[in-house]
C-alpha cells in the first residue's frame, strides 16, 4: 500500500508541474497576443506618410507586429 501511495504522490507532482507548464505557456501566448494587438493598432493608426517615414508600408504592419510580439 505504501508503494501505491508513493506512486500517486509522484504522479500528482508530475501533474502539477504539467499544469504549471501549461498555465505558463497560456500566459506567455496571452502576453504575446497583447503585444501584437497593441503594436498592430498603433501602426494602423499612423498615416501612410508616417509609415513611409519609418520605412514601412501598410502591407508590412502585420509582419512587424508578429515580430514585435515574439521579441518581447
UniProtKB/TrEMBL annotation:
Which Pfam families does the entry link to? YjiS-like
Which superkingdom heads the taxonomic lineage of this protein's source?
Answer: Bacteria
Name the chain's protein: Uncharacterized conserved protein YjiS, DUF1127 family
Question: What InterPro entries does the entry give?
Answer: YjiS-like
In this chain the YjiS-like domain maps to 26-62
Amino acid at each position: 500500500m505504501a508503494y501505491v501511495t508513493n506512486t500517486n504522490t509522484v504522479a500528482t507532482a508530475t501533474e502539477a508541474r504539467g499544469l504549471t507548464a501549461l498555465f505558463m505557456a497560456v500566459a506567455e501566448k496571452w502576453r504575446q497576443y497583447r503585444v501584437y494587438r497593441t503594436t498592430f493598432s498603433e501602426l494602423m493608426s499612423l498615416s501612410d506618410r508616417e509609415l513611409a517615414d519609418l520605412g514601412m508600408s501598410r502591407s508590412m504592419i502585420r509582419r512587424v507586429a508578429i515580430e514585435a510580439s515574439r521579441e518581447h
